[in-house]
Specification:
Strand content: 5-15%
CATH superfamily of the largest domain: Uncharacterised protein PF07075, DUF1343
Distance between the termini: 15 Å
Order of helices and strands: HHEHEEEHEHEHEHEHEEHHHHH
Helix content: 25-40%
Shape: globular
CATH topology of the largest domain: Rossmann fold
CATH class of the largest domain: Alpha Beta
Mean pLDDT: 97
Largest sheet: 7 strands, mixed
Number of helices: 13
Structural class: alpha/beta
Low-confidence stretches: none
Number of domains: 2
Radius of gyration: 21 Å
Number of strands: 10
Oligomer: single chain
Amino acid sequence: MVKIGCEILIENMPRWLKRARVGLLANQASILRDFRHVKDALMQEGVHLEVLFTPQHGFWGDKQANMDESPDDVDPATRIPILSLYSERREPPEEIMRRIDILLIDLQDVGTRVYTFAATAALCMKVAGKTSTRVMVLDRPNPLGGEEIEGNVLNGEFESFVGLFPVPMRHGLTLGELMLLANEVCGFSCDLEVVPMKGWKRRFLFPDCNLPWVLPSPNMPTFLTSLVYPGQVIWEGTNVSEGRGTTVPFEVMGAPFVNTGALKEKLEGIDMPGVHLRPTGFRPTFDKWAGELCRGFQLHVTDSGKLKPYFTSLSLLWAVLQVHGDDFRWLPPPYEYEFKKLPIDIITGDDLVRKRLEAGEHPREIEHQWQEGVERYLDLREKVLIYC
């Protein structure tokens, strides 16, 4: 059985923590196995919470993406102030951090570089280093496991709120390990401690953990969503819908101009393991193409162990460019507080991916190009691995 970091902390509650002034970075998915929220479990143990911080989408996960900011709030049950870190501020104010002795971070990450929770945690660490505030990460599983790595490593010229660390798209680290990397390699230095899980193995996907799934963001409703997300997120930088406004976000892609038959023909001969592309139609209720019939594909995962989500979606994108070049568009900025660079470039972490696709380069060739960077990353991540 996997025990997550917050459960380990509560079972072994240090006396000093009950005397400390504590802040908590969390959201609605920060629950224990018994569905108690971590804030309630901590308070039941006598921990004094001074302030709650919340990442993108708000404390209740009610806000959509891309600069749909959440306001500050007050927890109605406890009257503890909730400070949004996805608004005009994306770092905690220094004066607030100076009023706490330790910041606890308990967030369910999804194992993909562009998911912003890791950036929020790292920016908290940066401020904590200035204010001499301790930081403790209560670790949780990477839903995608800790073995499979995929995608090009972030080019430092394309650092952004959706990419602060030199890691591939699917990085194979838990949030605790990623924050160790941020602390020891990326300069987000502070007095950091990770409370590791017990029983988690790198080969585990989320269903192997026997833990409840609570959607960490409004368009991450299931574990299956997280499986395809490392690839399907690239559509956010295009005029092709990634399924926002449907009941299966990221599991579908499409647009009114898509010809699925022509795309199928173009993709013939490209091996995309672990997935079946089923032609479908959908009508988003909001976001891109709201109210219009989009034709495209639903990604049905047939073997999660063999699935290569980033390669799969890049292959789909390559085919769309080849077949629908006259109708396809890269979306302009702003995107996640970047106002100059193209959204697709900060999502993929390097403009070379876009340029190679535009030049008609085959996805296999692009995949080959990123392997050298992945090898360097694997050496780097060895320094921060906690689990076997």
